[in-house]
């Protein structure tokens, strides 16, 4: 029949939990009421309710436009529509202060459960049960509304994997595999729990400051309405809106590996807060991302670390007891839901745990399933340029999808920087912090900042090792 989906919920979940590269699902959500969530519809549903928008400049710089460098306004969706459609400024409210040709606006990370708390029936418009997650709806999802040019700086999410539904307009995703982490110059400044940012503006990389970025391989895909993108665990991504108005809905799927990741995040928070809080506040370094309410105290951070470690071992005990029961598939062994930016509460156990899969068995499961991933017109690989040229022809010819799709690839090693750097960063040969009153441009290149130290101290590889040592010490 016409409503039959290409994958059963069980098969879709198996793909989500097994696949270690990004892919696009087609023809899976045609009957979802959420596909009608365009900006005009949501404006009517919100009925004058204000939400916060982040505004950034459309000009492309050599450094990422982090959230600490953006402006913020609270406005209605009606005012956003008036502004983005070029209506008189008297209709655009606080947006009237920002020229549309120069700025983009983004209402990002909006928890649907929060902004529609008085209309819970709307949660059922989103049916992640079709992907094998029964009971998951809009209540466990996040809404994104942006204008052309709106973007999220390149980062990876410490927790889970990500399912993203495109509802209106198109977004271009630049994805990099976990193995490219060192080429992306990871940083925890600005600090936000669960987000590791890249110092590179991948849309306009400064290869003089970041020469290793030449080795990074981008997997680029343009996501169109009706398509669902799977972003596997720890894949870096930079996302930009390429149409006048874009709307997306996503849900983060928590994985067993998140229990160790929470220990790593607790260690990172403790170190970043301790070091940055010791700095002179007058330095004006906006090190805390706006999504973080405040720098938590050392005592609170230590409590959280102990809770995260305790939860990790609780899950290990659950794993031992589970091994005595009939075995289940790897897809069934992962935990359920978690919001990426969900604020933790000290004194509460971190997210509920079930089973930590035995390392060898887990690897075997992935290897077996990866050989059977049904790529084709309903599940499209997001490949690097070197591979996608030869395979996309077969996919496009055989596709019966009514959803338009565009898969692109690119290797940033082929890019070169021709613009003169306008903003110096701490990674360059003449760092900005060496230009203060006590220094000259010829100051010693060995002069280091607090952020330089932190980039080494809380580097993902270092934190992973520290977490492992800490867990071994606690186990003894």
Characterization of the model:
Helices cover 26% and strands 20% of the residues. By secondary structure, it is α+β, with helices and mostly antiparallel strands. Helix 5 (258-277) runs antiparallel to helix 9 and helix 5 crosses helix 10 (460-475).
Features:
476 residues, alpha+beta, 9-stranded antiparallel β-sheet, 7-stranded antiparallel β-sheet, 10 helices, 16 strands, globular
Brief rundown of the structure:
The chain is an alpha+beta fold and 476 residues long. Helices cover 26% and strands 20% of the residues.
- Put simply, the count of helices is 10
Radius of gyration equals: 23 Å
Q: What's the rounded overall pLDDT mean?
A: 82
* Major sheet: arrangement of strands: 3-2-4-5-14-7-12-1-15
Report the strand count.
16
Distance between the termini: 59 Å
Approximately what portion of the residues adopt beta-strand conformation? 15-25%
Lay out the secondary structure.
Blueprint: H1 9-18, E1 23-25, H2 39-46, E2 50-57, E3 71-76, H3 77-84, E4 103-111, H4 112-115, E5 142-147, E6 151-157, E7 161-168, E8 171-176, E9 186-187, E10 195-198, E11 217-223, E12 228-231, E13 236-241, E14 245-253, H5 258-277, H6 298-322, H7 359-370, E15 379-381, H8 385-398, E16 406-411, H9 450-457, H10 460-475
Helix pairs in contact: 5-6, 5-9, 5-10
